[in-house]
Amino acid sequence: KYRHKIQELRRSSPDVFESRMEKRSEVKKQPVGHSKQGEFIRCMEEKARPIFFAEGLGSKTSKGGFTKDKTLDSILNVEMVKEKSAEEITQIWNQYFSAKDTVYAVIPADKFDLMWKRAQSCPSFLYALPRKEGYEFFVGQWSGTELHFTSLINVQTQGETAPSQLVLYHYPDLQKEKGIVLMTAEMDSKFLVVHDAQCLANQVQLFYATDRSETYGLVETFNHRSSEFKYMSVIAELEQSGLGRELRPGQVSDKS
Questions:
Q1: Is this model's pTM higher than 0.85 or not?
Q2: For a Cys staple, 197 with which of 103, 120, 173, 248, CB 3.0–4.6 Å?
């Protein structure tokens, strides 16, 4: 049907003819199902997916490279997740941070309430970080809902100017509506690895969220009767709880 028109085009405008033949050849080389419309649809689907996390926002850093005024809005699209259940938010939070080299958690509201109440009257404590040989001590100091850690030797040599080596950020923004408090962290990788940070974060809950009066009693002693406080009592508590053995590098937990 089009043979005559094709031949006429070839005679009258050979350049146009060759150009159309090249385009036709390119189309034939495309894989089956390929189309620019398909690419457009895929692009729109990507853009339509909910973006829960606001990467790169709130990135003003303070001394030591830690984020200054690190709000939940600078990490998470709070308005979007408000429509989700606590279980869904927990899954979103855990899935996002599981791919990152950091510490994170979702803390039940009642547990955080207990921790927060105790942090008001006992804002600091001494933590013991298991090492291959012995322990290294770190001081944890609450500043609002942030918990800053630095090694004891830093405190002894630099006092109040001792730099933070780990900061745990607690976000109670969704506590009333969803019954959860979100937590994540930043650390100075020159001094600590994620394993160390996780150990310290676990100890916060061990000492501040415990139902055992003897355990929290160490926190009270450290804050209000410092002359009576014994460093080795922290290690003894860790060993008794099993946390010290479990988190010591090079050892395998005996928990199943």
A1: no
A2: 103
